[in-house]
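Sample pair:
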Amino acid sequence: MINYKVMYFGKQGRLLSQRQVPCDGHWEACEWAWKHKPSRADDFHIEEADLDHDPEAQLRKEDEAISAAFHIL
């Protein structure tokens, strides 16, 4: 699970509230945001909140695993 920061905005883009929610992906976080949207909110924004989440490092790790598997074959 990844923590997502959900920010709700009102008139003229003013920040109304923000929360962190653990979700399996961006679309699940969007569903959560729609279900919990305050009545005064006009829009919301979602971004990953994990400071230690590094997609490039994850890709490098996966590439190393694939290379090791091919080396065995």
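The mean pLDDT is 85.
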